[in-house]
């Protein structure tokens, strides 16, 4: 597997996932800040030309949620995605998609001071989205009790940078959840890889 990656971007979430999975992968640097980006060659991997991207043999794809699900399902022994026969599978998919479909749009609305329209916008609004998430993680420790999944990873990653950049309130539940997630050895390894990559020109 090759992870198309650039430091200080959303590709960090996929990097963290690769470290959770623990299977061999190659990190391929894509400089999204270069004037030549995105190249036509890169758009063959991710048609949006964004990072992250993933190449696995003849498969290539973009979108963090899709990459996380693909990798988790490819390595079921990791337990990072409940199996399709598992009673938690549906709820897992719902929360796995939540960062991309709901949290990110409400964070952008909040950051830009845009007026929400909770019924006509697919993402509802900030209060509705954050209340739903807060309730889901309150019992804990993870969404599905003691089992950490790719949905916890993606939500924790989004909450972490959302709180860091003032787009999400630092509610105690969000702080607890992200502190627990970022204490995981795979997160610590990913963070160290990211720091090394930042030294590479
Ligand atoms: N919906 C995408 C968003 C990815 C994204 O926006 N990546 C940014 C970096 S944080 C990017 O590649 N920007 C460069 C560009 O748009 O060309 C995902 O979740 O994977």
Which features does this protein show?
201 residues; alpha+beta; Glutaredoxin; Glutathione S-transferase Yfyf (Class Pi), Chain A, domain 2; 2 domains; 4-stranded mixed β-sheet; 8 helices; globular; binds glutathione
List the helices and strands and how they pair.
Elements: E1 2-5, H1 11-21, E2 26-29, H2 40-45, E3 53-56, E4 59-62, H3 64-74, H4 89-112, H5 126-138, H6 150-164, H7 172-182, H8 185-199
Parallel strand pairs: 1-2
Antiparallel strand pairs: 1-3, 3-4
The structure holds glutathione (GSH).
Glutathione is lined by residues 9-10, 32, 37-38, 49-52, 63-64, 100.
- Poorly predicted regions: none
Counted by DSSP, the helix tally is 8
Compute the number of structural domains: 2
Overall CATH class of the largest domain:
Mainly Alpha
Structural class: alpha+beta
Rg, nearest Å: 17 Å
Order of helices and strands: EHEHEEHHHHHH
CATH architecture assignment of the largest domain: Up-down Bundle
| Strand order, largest beta sheet | 2-1-3-4
What is the terminal separation in angstroms? 24 Å
Structure description:
By secondary structure, the chain is α+β, with helices and mostly antiparallel strands. Helix content is 53%, strand content 8%. It has eight helices and four strands; from the N terminus they run βαβαββαααααα. Strands 2-1-3-4 form a four-stranded mixed sheet, with helices on one face. A hairpin with a 2-residue loop joins β3 and β4 (59-62). α1 packs antiparallel against α6 (150-164) and α4 runs parallel beside α6. The structure holds glutathione.
């Amino acid at each position: 597997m090759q992870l198309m990656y650039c430091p200080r971007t959303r590709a960090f979430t996929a990097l963290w996932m690769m470290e959770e999975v623990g299977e061999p992968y190659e990190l391929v640097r894509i400089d999204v800040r270069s004037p030549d980006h995105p190249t036509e060659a890169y758009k063959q991997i991710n048609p949006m030309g964004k990072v992250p991207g993933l190449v696995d043999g003849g498969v290539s794809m973009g979108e963090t949620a899709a990459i996380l699900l693909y990798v988790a399902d490819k390595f079921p022994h990791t337990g990072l995605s409940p199996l399709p026969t598992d009673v938690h599978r549906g709820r897992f998919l719902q929360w796995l998609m939540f960062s991309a479909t709901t949290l990110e749009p409400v964070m952008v609305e909040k950051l830009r001071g845009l007026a929400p329209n909770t019924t006509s916008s697919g993402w509802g609004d900030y209060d509705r989205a954050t209340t739903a998430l807060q309730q889901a993680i309150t019992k804990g420790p993870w969404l599905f009790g003691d089992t950490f999944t790719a949905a916890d990873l993606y939500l924790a990653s989004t909450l972490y940078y959302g709180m860091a950049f003032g787009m999400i309130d630092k509610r105690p539940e969000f702080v607890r959840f992200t502190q627990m997630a970022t204490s995981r050895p795979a997160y610590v390894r990913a963070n160290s890889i990211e720091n090394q990559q930042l030294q590479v020109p």
